[in-house]
C-alpha cells in the first residue's frame, strides 16, 4: 500500500516547519513567493493529495491580478480598458503587471500577485496565438481566465476574437459588391490569426464555387510588404478585382501602390483590411474597410468570466467574440 504523504513529509523535504507547509497549502498567512512555490513544488513531487474536507476556504480580498504581455500594444490596451471597467464596476481593485513577453518575468509577477492574495488572475496576451497554460504550482489554485491569447488547454477559460468568421465575412463582403477575382495579401504564415482568417476566406470562396485568383502572398505585417505584394500580383497579369489584406497596414500599402499606378480603388479593385486601426484605416487616401476585433468586449467578457469563476461558477473552453465589419470607401464607391 502506498504511504500517504503528510505535512511532516513535505516539511522535512523542503526544510521548513510544518506550520509553514500548512500556510502554503491552505493559502493562509504571509509567505514569500519563493517559499510558497518551493513548498508547492515539493508537495507535487512527493505526490501529496490534499484531503477535501480539511481545505481552508480562501478569503476574498477584492483584488484581481491582471498580467499583460504587451502593455504598450495597440491590441492589449483596449482589452485592458474593457476588463478594468468591468472589474471596477464590481468594486474590485486591479493590480496590473507587464511581463513584456518574458515567461520568467510572468511567473515572478504571478508569484507576487499570489502573495498579495488576489482573488483571480486575468492573463492578457498581445496576439491571438495560443499560449501554454499556467502550471498548477505557478497559479496556486487561483481562478484564471486568458484573454485574446487563449490557453492551448481546452479545459481552461479563454476569450478571443473570431478570426475565422471575419475571414469569411471579408470574402462575402467583396462578393456582394460583385467581385469574383479575389487575391489575398497576408502576414507571416505561422500566425494563428493568419491561419484562421484564411480558413474563413477559403470556406466562403468554396461555398460560392470560386477560387483565389492567385496564391496567397505571405510576407510580414508592414505597409512595405503590401506595396511589394500587390506589385507582384500585378506583374503576373492575373485579373484581380478584389484584395483581402489581413491587416490595415498591408491594405494601406496595397491601396497607395494601386493609386500610384492609376488603378482606381474601389472602382477597379476593392480592398478590405483587418484590425480597424484608426490611424491607418481612416487616414489612408482611400479610407479602408476593415474589421474591428472588439477588443474592449473581449476584456469585458473575460472579466465577467473571471468573476463567475471567483464566485464558484467557472467557465471552460474558448469564447469567441465576433469581429465587426466597418465599411469605408475602399470597397464602396
Automatic annotation (TrEMBL):
GO terms for molecular function: DNA-binding transcription factor activity; transcription cis-regulatory region binding. This is Sugar-binding domain protein. It comes from the Bacteria. Keywords: DNA-binding, Transcription, Transcription regulation. Residues 5-49 form the HTH lacI-type domain. It holds the Pfam family LacI. PANTHER family: HTH-TYPE TRANSCRIPTIONAL REGULATOR GALS, LACI-RELATED TRANSCRIPTIONAL REPRESSOR. The keyword Magnesium does not apply. InterPro entries: HTH_LacI, LacI/GalR-like_sensor, Lambda_DNA-bd_dom_sf, Peripla_BP_I. SMART domains: HTH_LACI (SM00354).
